Amino acid sequence: MRSPLFLLSIALFVGCLFLVPFQISPAKEPTTGLAYLLMGWLGPLAGIVAWYANPFLFLGWINFLRGRTVAARWQSVVSVALAGTFLMHESILIDEGGGTAKIISHDLGYWLWLASPVALFFVSRHFQSSSNSAIQGPPQNEDDAT
User: Fold this and answer.
1) Strand order in the sheet with 22-25
2) Residue from 56, 71, 57, 87 nearest 127 by CA
3) What is the DSSP letter of 87?
4) Three-state DSSP class for 141?
């Protein structure tokens, strides 16, 4: 199942890897989404579970490609919910010594990351409703039931 919206979901994710997802204070050298993807699994040590949106997004893509649109849709919902939890955090762990920095803004990289599972949700919803109508066939007229 290829769809421009499915490809958009992947493109949004790939794009976020090359952009800065947020700004911190005190300012440090900006870090791209790729670095956070590689190190973000450590987030729960600081109480941040947002990174775990990624495995759900990846599973959603796989399920969508396998035609499991309902599973893909629910995985995209979980992914959006987990990614959205990052908005609740005011600071983030910035070094191995436990140092933290205040999050002062969420930048384009974050919003592209969040938009990726949203796009997957809509494409899986569209394909699920399309496959349901194909299975059910055209609506039946009750007058024709003779």
Assistant:
1) 22-25, 100-106, 91-93
2) 71
3) G
4) coil
